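Changelog note: in this version the structure field was regenerated for every chain. One regenerated record is shown below for reference.
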Amino acid sequence: MVLVAATLFGLNGTVSKVVLASGISSLELTQVRSLGAFVGFAVAMAIWRPAALRVTRRELPFLAVFGIGGVALVQWFYFFSIHRLPVGIALLIQYLAPLIVALFAHYAMHQPVRRRIWVALACSLTGLGLIVEVWAGGALSSVGVAAAICGAFAYAAYVLLAERGVAERDPGSLLCYGFLFAALFWTVVHPPWNYPAGRLDDSVSLLGRLGGAHLPIWLLMLFIVVVGTIVTFFLIVGALQHITATRLGIVAMFEPVVASAVAYAWLGETFGGFQLAGAAIVLAGILLAQTAR
């Protein structure tokens, strides 16, 4: 389930970059993705498992935190960062989340972690320095890097909250309410009447090696909502019923690899020599962090 989700997420990154290049903002794309996913999950649950949608007042605060702090923000930071960074690099930075989880377990929850967490921290920071080429004053967008780092914190919160949520709720209903609160949050931040709905019929170039092909924005967004959100999020949260968040994080490291390959084949995005070395060191650090709890 996680491998399929990681593959689809990797493809979704490049499709999202095409939409963002059309002039749709990261906030506007996040808003459509959240609302569309909520509608999809709500309809599916109402048909197949309506009883699972029952919710108590006691659950609402947790679902709101999960929807806003996890679902809403992890999407926006991701779209914001890939708009300004190569897809693979943005994902590598976001996948520092397992390191954040291990540090949180150690300092906030006072859980014992293995000493290798400090080696993981050193590897991740060293690799990150190589990726952004700090000696050159930062070869990448500093705003994009900052957004990706914030996305790592949001992703860590999302996985931890989801792991707790599936212990009490069906994955479909958890995601349904998560996307509901995410959609409500973005509706307040960006009211629907400000949305450029008239642009959704515009036909845009697929860029890169597919630059000669054109598709309407609404069709690309439909792919992002159905394949890149409903299917993928359900697979990830559903997998937490079978494996731990730690093991999920290890397998999900396949996503930056797929995303980089798709972005290279489609958009021609490549890593420089230092960035490639940094990516390998970051992946090693993430793997160590995953085994440190």
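Spot check on this record: The chain has one domain: 2-290. The chain has a mean pLDDT of 86.
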